[in-house]
Amino acid sequence: MNSVRELLAASVISIQNSCFIYPACQKCFSRLMLDSRRFNCLKCGRTGEAKDASYRYRLSLKIADTNDLFDITVFGSCLDPFFGVTAENLQRCIQDINQLSGETNTDASPGLLVQAVETCFIGKRFIFGV
């Protein structure tokens, strides 16, 4: 695998999904399998109580430079400044909003949040480290 990092100046064309955070293993950052009481990491085997699961940002974007289109995913705390809170705190807010609205899909982000993320990113130019 090539370990050379490059910088890519590109504009965001679209947001690829509406789920911006995921339950992440604190050891290997893989997505955790959650049920109502427990979590399990299929990659490294870490387990624990669901209430202790940590969350991480994952923003999938379609971007374009002057010549090409790319699908890119941005992970982690580098997104904290854009959202204004950590992924942990955003997850708590989403849970609270979903409870108040009666939403049963725990992976769903509220529509206003999706619109805000689209407004913040679509059409804007960023420098990505790839």
Automatic annotation (TrEMBL):
One of its GO terms (cellular component) is nucleus. Pfam families: Rep_fac-A_C (PF08646). Keywords: DNA-binding, Metal-binding, Zinc, Zinc-finger. GO terms for biological process: negative regulation of intrinsic apoptotic signaling pathway in response to DNA damage. Residues 9-95 form the Replication factor A C-terminal domain. One of its GO terms (molecular function) is DNA binding. It comes from the Eukaryota. Belongs to the replication factor A protein 1 family. This is DDIAS protein. It comes from Scopus umbretta. The gene is Ddias.
